[in-house]
UniProtKB/TrEMBL annotation:
One of its GO terms (cellular component) is transcription factor TFIID complex. It comes from Lutzomyia longipalpis (Sand fly). Residues 8-21 have a biased composition (Acidic residues). GO terms for molecular function: protein heterodimerization activity; translation initiation factor activity. The lineage of its organism: Eukaryota, Metazoa, Ecdysozoa, Arthropoda, Hexapoda. SUPFAM superfamilies: Histone-fold (SSF47113). This is Transcription initiation factor TFIID subunit 13.
């Protein structure tokens, strides 16, 4: 009995820390697990032809599948290359035989590079613009 309050304090402390992990509000399920992607999945389901407000059970099941996929992919990527670390090359290696996934990863990486270049150019223009102003 003496150990029960300590466990409750630990659980409460973990819960309090989780609230500050992200800016996106999360939904909790009956099991107490937070749903990280509910809003996005609802929008995606609607975009792919489901009802505008899909059943919560459907969204929860889809989120479980997404979390499972991310977890398995991450674990597999950690075994490739430098053990214990996930690098972009490891993800590319894992999806290399799936043409759709490979194309999507390639598109996202290309877009990321373009965004980096655009930010860099914008920062250089901003820096040059403030350089000539009198103080």
């Amino acid at each position: 009995m003496a150990g029960a309050p300590a466990e409750e304090n630990i659980d409460q402390a973990e819960f309090d820390e989780d609230e500050f992990l992200g800016d996106t509000p999360t939904e909790a399920t009956q099991s107490g697990r937070k749903r990280l992607f509910s809003k996005e999945l609802r929008c995606m389901m609607y975009g792919f032809g489901d009802d505008q407000n899909p059943y919560t059970e459907s969204v929860d099941m889809l989120e479980d599948l997404v979390i499972e996929f991310i977890t398995e992919t991450t674990h597999r990527a950690m075994e490739i290359g430098r053990t214990g670390r996930v690098q972009v090359e490891d993800i590319v290696f894992l999806v290399r035989k799936d043409p759709r996934k490979y194309a999507r990863v390639k598109d996202l990486l290309t877009m990321n590079e373009e965004l980096k270049r655009a930010r860099k150019a914008f920062d250089e223009i901003k820096y040059v613009g403030t350089e000539g102003k009198p103080k």
